[in-house]
Design goal:
With about 120 residues, this protein is mainly alpha-helical. The protein has helices spanning about 1-30, 55-60, 85-95, 105-110, 115-120; strands spanning about 40-45, 65-70, 100-105.
């Protein structure tokens, strides 16, 4: 059905992002000096708390030489309860450093508090 098709498309998008991230980190790894002890960092804001949008990505990203930083599940939305936007903003500000080489930020999470909230928001 349509839900299975949507799930397949979503998983393909996640896999595409993983390929891009792996390529990004390996390119950075080649250009860094061999004596460098700092692994490149990337910030990842998922759409929401679901396994396919957060944990699957983090599990696949473990094959990279870099470090993926993502908010704790307590800072993510839960069903129709939105994420605490000010806490997410503070979390992001604290982690943006000179070693942060990339960021994938879900606009739905960062602006609305989650995917469901972005669909039901009137503001």
């Amino acid at each position: 059905g349509i839900n299975a098709e949507y799930g397949g498309i979503l998983m393909l998008n996640v896999l595409f992002l993983i390929v891009v991230i792996v390529e990004h980190f390996y390119c950075l790894d080649v250009t860094h000096s061999l004596s460098s002890r700092v692994s490149p960092e990337m910030i990842y804001f998922p759409l929401d708390e679901r396994f396919t949008t957060r944990d699957a990505f983090l599990n696949l990203a473990k094959v990279t030489p870099g470090v993926v930083l993502t908010p704790d599940p307590s800072l993510l939305p839960l069903l129709k309860n939105p994420a605490p936007l000010s806490a997410l903003d503070q979390w992001l500000a604290e982690r943006l450093t000179q070693t942060t080489s990339a960021a994938i930020i879900s606009v739905e999470l960062y602006l609305y508090g989650g995917l469901i909230q972005s669909r039901i928001s009137n503001t």
